[in-house]
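Internal tracking record. Fields below are filled automatically when a chain is submitted to the structure queue. Please do not edit lines marked as system-generated. If the sequence contains nonstandard residues, flag them in the REMARKS field before resubmitting.
Queue: standard
Priority: normal
Entity type: single polypeptide chain
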Amino acid sequence: MTSRERVLMTLNHKEPDRIPMVDSPWSATLNRWKNEGLPSDIDINEYFNWDFAFNGADTSPRFPVRTIEKNDTFIVATTPYGGKRRNFRDYTTTPEVIDWPIKSKDDWKEIKKKLAPEFTRVDWATGLASNNKAKEEAKFIFYGGGYGFDILQNYMKTEELLIAMVEEPDWIKEMIMTLAELNLVMLEFMMKNGFAFDGTFFYNDMGYKNGPLFSPETYMKVHFQADRMVFDYCHSKNLKVFLHSCGNVKQLIPMLIEAGLDCLQPLEVKAGMDVRELKAEFGDKLCFMGGIDVRLMNLPDKSKIEEEIRSKFEVAKKGGGYIYHSDHSIPNNVSFQDFCAVMELVKKYGVYEKPPVEIEQPVEVMQVQESVSVPEKTPGKKGLFKFLKRGKEPVQKEPEEKKQKPVEPPQTESEGTEKKNLFGFLKKGKK
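SYSTEM-GENERATED OUTPUT FOLLOWS
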């Protein structure tokens, strides 16, 4: 069974040959592992035969990145979002935020001008090569990106962002919608120019140890419309939708299901996210990825991590709908030997006792349609983007010589036009 078949069966709540698997070691962890036996000339995904591959586009404002200060311990640098961060030289901790680019609505207006969809946002050389390789190996291929609260923390101080979500929800919603549309434009653009995808993986940390960072009501005001638009669009292209959201986001799950989410990751154990409980409550409507406590991986007593994997796999994998991943990422206190032992346990307990009765038939990768019918709940009379037509009328095929040319992304509206947003989807003053 190929990785793609395995993942699709899992996401369709069927039992394949084994659970799909992937994980996320830190760069500092990989550096340690290369000194402990991991071959330096092989990709970690290939070494462990993980089932997924990733591609994406740069959806930042692309401010110049430069080093401001560097010493034996720390490095201070600017970010492509226009902020400043201080980090350890080995990047083993969450960076300290020194400055943010958005302190007023006027700052956002200037940054918004830098969020135009452009050809140069994609790594065409190595990106297309890796995408073609993953396609040949029948991996499940993600488009990776982000557009919500978590991404906005690159632009605004967290405390000020949270206050604005309550006091000025329309402004925050407009920022989120702009970033969401940019991701969809670039996704469409990449598919029209050679990339193939099976799913999308969006990042949006919305929780902390004790619950969501904002109320479900606030989520509905500022996030839901963007999530519904993105998820509906992805489903129209036969793409499954994954969401990475750290912390305890259990209160938001019903709304994420309503928006159309297919799979939630990473199920942070120390925040109270237990995959066994989540499976029992939401397993008929949602798939899960992660939930294996990384804090147990380096303990001398290996029976603890074995019981963690055995007991959770026993519940989570039943009837499909579960993918292995740690409950966040692998820090550099986990040795290569420890992690290899974890992978052996995943293989041991992740196998289904009975072979799959019905193997998911390979589906030809969805090609971008010439015209798209936008879901009814997606607002906007002119469709998602200016270059996508609402409706199902057939479109005349272009001559072959035209089809050979790369499709350019849509241009932004000029400053003198009535539409002030990037893509002509959100109209100023629209009720």
